[in-house]
Structures are given as C-alpha cells and as structure tokens.
Amino acid sequence: MNILIKSYYRPYLLDRCLKSIYEKVNDANDLEIIVLDDGTPQKYLDKIKEKYPNVEFKFSSYRNEKIEKLNRHLQGIEQYHDTRIPTDLWYNAIAESSEILIITEDDVWFVDNFDMPFYANEMEKYGSQILKMGRDITETINYSLTETIAYHNPKYIIKSQKLYNILLNNSFDIRNKLTKLNLLPKHWRNELWKMYDIPMAMMRKDYLLYIWKDKYKRVVEDLQLANAVGWDIKTKGTTKYTLLKNRVMETSYCSSASFNAFNIEENFDLIKFNYILNELWYNDEFNSYENHPNDFSIEYIYDILKKNDSSSFADKWKKWTEGFKEMHKES
Questions:
Q1: 240 and 258 both lie in a single domain
Q2: Do you know which InterPro entries this protein is assigned to (predicted)?
Q3: Which of 7, 145, 157, 327 supports an S-S bond with 149, CB 3.0-4.6 Å?
Q4: Structural domain of residue 147, as residue ranges?
C-alpha cells in the first residue's frame, strides 16, 4: 500500500511527517512511501533520503523553476510569485498507487499508532470510500460502526449535483443572495466535507480519482466537493463515509506552503521563515520533533527566529501564526 506525501520547501516538516510514520504506522517498512516534491532544493532531499532510505521521490515539472525563483527571492532579486499547483503529479501518483492509499502533506504527522492494513480491510468490509483520521468539522451526529470507527452521511439541502454546482460556483451570485436572505443552512458546505479530506484520510483510489477527475493547475476544492456529491448520487447513497473515533493525525499552523495566499500579517516573508528553519534543520540545529505529538510550541519557534534574525521578525511570525490558526479554527 502507498502513502503519498505532497512536499514543498519545508524539509523540517517533511522530516517530522516521515518520522511519525515510521514510529506510529504498523509495518511502515512494508509500505511504499513516496514524496511528491514541487520545489525543495536537492541538498535537503538528500538528507531526507539519508534518514529514510526506503522513501521514494517523484518531482513536478515546475520543481527546478520554482527552486530558482525561491533563490532569487532570497537574494532580493525579485519577489517570489508562482501559483502553479502540480495537480498532474498528484493525480498520476494516485492513479499508479495501491487501491487504498493515504495522500497527505508535509505539515501533517501521526500522533498515535495506526494499523494501515487492518483499517484497509475494514474499509473493504464496510464498503467505505474514505476513512478520515484527523479533523471533523461537521455539525451533525456520527454513528458508531465498530469499536474504533464511526460513520456519517451528508445532510443535503436537496440531493442534486446541479444545485451544488450552482452553490459552490456561486453561479449568478445565487449563493450570496441566498445567504443574505438566510435561506441556506449555516453549515451546508461543511456537510460536504464528510465525503472528502486530503491531508488526513485514507481513501480508495477509484473514489479519489473520480473526485479529482477535472485536473486543473490549481486546487479547486469546491469542484472536488461537487464531484463528491456526484459520486454519492451515482452510488445511490450506498457509500459509507467513515472516520476514526479518535484522531491519529495532526497538522501544523506554524507555516504555510501557500506563499501567495495568506496576507494575515502584512509583509511577513514566509519564504525567509522557511529558509531559516530549513537551514537550521539541515545543520542539525532544529528539532523537527519538538513538542510532538502536538504542534511546535510558539516559544520554540519564536526564540529561534529572534536568535537567527530579529525580534521584529519573530513578532511578525507570532502575529501571522495566530491569524493562521484563527482562519482554521473550525478544522
């Protein structure tokens, strides 16, 4: 079976992710673990390979160009800007993977023991397309399936893919108009997340490929959610959407790979931030497993930034990460 890890310029987090897999996932050495990298300099990946020799790597067609852009940014030549997402790399890796797989990201790690072969068999047994292993942002009741697994079904406004295409795309501004009139249930979109979750879930390949059947050069979550509705309608509600009763995966809010997407703290340089931690990690001066199984402690990162840059930069990061957490507080 496969674990696929999307990776981009944060080897200190990739190290944390991989270490947790080899510590917490049963028979991890028998799994095929593949890093799907989109812009991490080779010297960092060489160190990852030294630590985890069984890990394989696949690269996006943008990787070298993005690395050059990162270098130019750090040298002060030009601001980094590149919104291309390697969806082809991800899609093709999924298509070539095992029938049941985990696709996660470098800023996600295991916090508790997980028996992947056992739960793959449970998914087969109960006809589950997805087993969520982390967050549950929905509001409705979960029903017990086994001692460790629950299930939930999306609560639709009307079970119609056409309707959800209109709402998710906000065609003709309908979603905004209905929201102003208080005609949409408060958590209508969160209900759809019962059927989907990339960074913290085990999924069947055929289901994942169906959700990702429209391959854009960017992440279009609303389109993927609409496709999930289409799958549920196609299978006439026979699909079970399952989740672990106790989460076994967690994510970090100390950083982001979306350098263009979040302007929480104006002029905070995420590339510079990641470069500082990357270099310290490379020189064995950064503990990638600090505070595990929880996220990195604020004090640990803050003191590192203060020592290796300035109090001003550390303050900016602290304000940024607090805002980033607030954005994702429901997840």
A1: no
A2: Nucleotide-diphossugar_trans
A3: 145
A4: 118-247
Two tokens at 103? 């696709």
In this structure, the answer to whether residues 214 and 270 fall within a common structural domain is no
Residue 131 CA to residue 145 CA, distance in Å, equals 12
Query: pLDDT digit string (tens) for 144-178?
Result: 999 999 999 889 999 998 999 999 989 999 999 99
Classify 40 as helix, strand or coil: coil
Residue 261: both structure tokens together: 């997407």
Q: Tell me the CA distances in angstroms from 330 to 66, 139, 152, 196, 207, one per residue in order.
A: 32, 11, 18, 16, 25
- Domain-ending residue, one of 62, 86, 109: 109
Pairing mode of beta strands 149-151, 240-244: antiparallel
Name residue, tokens 């065609």: 171
In this structure, are residues 31 and 114 in contact, taking their beta carbons and an 8 Å threshold? no
Q: Are residues 104 and 47 in the same domain?
A: yes
Q: Is 295 helix (H, G, I), strand (E, B) or coil?
A: coil
| Side chain identity, residue 91 | Y
Structure tokens at 199: 């960074």
Instruction: Give the whole-angstrom CA distance, residue 80 versus residue 174.
Output: 36
Do the beta carbons of residue 131 and residue 201 sit within 8 Å?
A: yes
Strand order across the 100-105 sheet: 56-59, 32-37, 2-7, 100-105, 201-204, 128-132, 240-244, 149-151, 143-144
pLDDT digits (tens, 9 = 90+) for 224-233: 999 999 999 9
- For residue 254, count other CB atoms closer than 10 A to its CB: 21
Last residue of a domain, one of 61, 77, 109: 109
